[in-house]
Each structure stands twice: as structure tokens, then as C-alpha cells.
Design goal:
Blueprint: E1 7-11, E2 17-21, H1 35-57, H2 62-98, H3 102-115
Antiparallel strand pairs: 1-2
Length: 116
């Protein structure tokens, strides 16, 4: 983990440079560029899930429910992919630069759970 007050920067694929400071003993944290997109995807998935619940309450055909449920699952997986890409592109790059080896271990654990 970076030492308190250590400032470092990284450049994303578009050439935009990000600079930030790490606080001692705090997990790696900075603004993610896809936060709004992820929140929008999750809101849509949540709304879609509510409609699936109503379908079940209304006794809709099981095949229709399963198809709609698969759309919710796909939406959640896509949101996870965006988070994962952002995490690798920023958090993991920063963690490596600052010597935070536990970030790779945590990423591997998260991938194992996400892919199940």
C-alpha cells in the first residue's frame, strides 16, 4: 500500500492522466470513470427485476418469466464487466504502482465469485 501522502498518477487508454494521493491504511480509492453508467445499468436491471416479480405474481407463463429473468442476469453481468474493466484499468494499475500486492489477491477472489 502507498505511504500516507504519496501522490501518483496514471494515464488511461484515452491519454487522460489521473493523479491522486493515498492515505495510510486506507483501501485504494478514487473516482471511477464509469460510475454513472454502472448506476444506470443497475437501475434498469432493478426495474426489470420488479417487472419479473409482477409477472410471477400475475401467473405469467414460466417460459416468458425465464426469458425476462435471463435479461436481468445479463444486465447484471454486463454491469459487473464494466466494473471489472474499470477496476483493472485504474485500481489495479494504481495498486501495482504503489506496491499493494493484496489488490491482486482481492481481484482474483472477486473474479472467482463473479464468474461462478
Amino acid at each position: 500500500m502507498a505511504k500516507s501522502g504519496q501522490v501518483h498518477s496514471h494515464v488511461d487508454a484515452d491519454g487522460v492522466e489521473y493523479t491522486h494521493t493515498h492515505e495510510e491504511s486506507l483501501p485504494h480509492k478514487h473516482t471511477h470513470e464509469n460510475t454513472k453508467a454502472v448506476l444506470n445499468r443497475l437501475s434498469r436491471a432493478s426495474g426489470h427485476l420488479e417487472s419479473v416479480k409482477r409477472m410471477i405474481e400475475d401467473g405469467k407463463d414460466c417460459s416468458e418469466v425465464l426469458i425476462q429473468l435471463s435479461a436481468v442476469i445479463a444486465a447484471l453481468n454486463n454491469a459487473g464487466k464494466v466494473i471489472l474493466q474499470d477496476h483493472i484499468g485504474h485500481c489495479i494499475v494504481d495498486a501495482i504502482e504503489s506496491g499493494d500486492d493484496t489488490a491482486i489477491e482481492n481481484l482474483n477472489k472477486a473474479i472467482d465469485r463473479f464468474i461462478k
